[in-house]
Amino acid sequence: MEEKRSARKRIVLTGGGTAGHVTPNIALMPELKKRGYRVFYIGSYAGMEKDMIEATGTRYFGIATGKFRRYLDLKNLSDPFRVLKGLSEAKKYLKKIRPDVVFSKGGYVAVPVVLAAKRLGIPVVIHESDMTPGLANKLCIPSASRVCCNFPETVKLLPEGKAVLTGSPIRAELFAGDKEAGLAFCGFTSEKPVILVIGGSLGSVAVNKAVRAVLPQLLEDFQVIHLCGKGNLAPELEGRPGYAQYEFISEQLPDLMAAADLMISRAGANAICEILALHKPNILIPLPAAASRGDQLDNAESFRKQGFSYVLQEEEITPEVLLTAVKDVYDDRAEYTAAMAGAGQTDSIRIIADLLDQCVGR
Fold this sequence. Notes:
Layout lengths: L8 E6 L8 H12 L2 E8 L3 H7 L4 E5 L11 H23 L3 E4 L5 H10 L4 E5 L6 H6 L5 E4 L2 H4 L7 E3 L13 H8 L7 E5 L5 H10 L1 H7 L1 E5 L15 E4 L6 H7 L2 E4 L3 H10 L3 E3 L10 H11 L4 E2 L7 H13 L1 H9 L6 H14 L1
Parallel strand pairs: 1-2, 1-4, 2-3, 4-5, 5-6, 6-7, 8-9, 8-11, 9-10, 11-12, 12-13
Helix pairs in contact: 1-15, 3-4, 7-10
């Protein structure tokens, strides 16, 4: 039986496949609820987004998904049928929920939801994290009322009148980090500045190797927090003074970021938007084109041009190059911080929520 509709506004959030397609949705939820929305989520049957969203207490609906590939694969023969099934399921759930608006963070799971919303006359707002839209969002953009983005360059790549430069929704807890708590968690002192290295799980080996190759020199002037990814701990470095390594950190991450004076990171869109929001001087090492569609290279170049980041190409890194970059960024940290503070992208949640309200009220 169809659920009885309340007088409150309703919104369906969608997106999945990676944490970067989910955490911005989670960051939006408190503001949406404050504005009177009932929040629902449509994702894949058992993707990583399911556990992340259900942990927030949000009602979750799973649909079939198929991946969109630019390369030859036998699954290209079967996945279109999964997409069609997902489209049918998404349409059924949207009819049941009857949302006033849909917000999509992208990923292949979002395509059936956006297309179903278009067919049902439900307005859709999309967020594109990377400088150049991915394939899933390219398929969804014609069905969207507005497209939010993180980079000035992206506006020129989108249909006229749809693009809005918003920045990325950032989790409120990241702004509440405690520097002293972060230092204490790592067993560090306040006598030396701190470098936070976020290698992550994807493509982390090159970053980890580069940092560990110059660790003795770094520890002469800095303390190093190293988030190196699952299975990438170096047992021989355990207990080394001034060096703390972890596979992954969740609860204490805001404190570690607060403790950081400089960050070294890949150039995934959500990671660098968090760095921007926190105004952290940084060195970006984007995934090379051979390991991605080139989105991180574009993201990093945009941040370099805007004066937010120092960029190193993975294939060019030597111990001398990395040490020079660290010294240069730390010496010029005030300039990087000032550039990021002037970016005007720290109010993304309000801007996006206003766009959603506009869609509901039209």
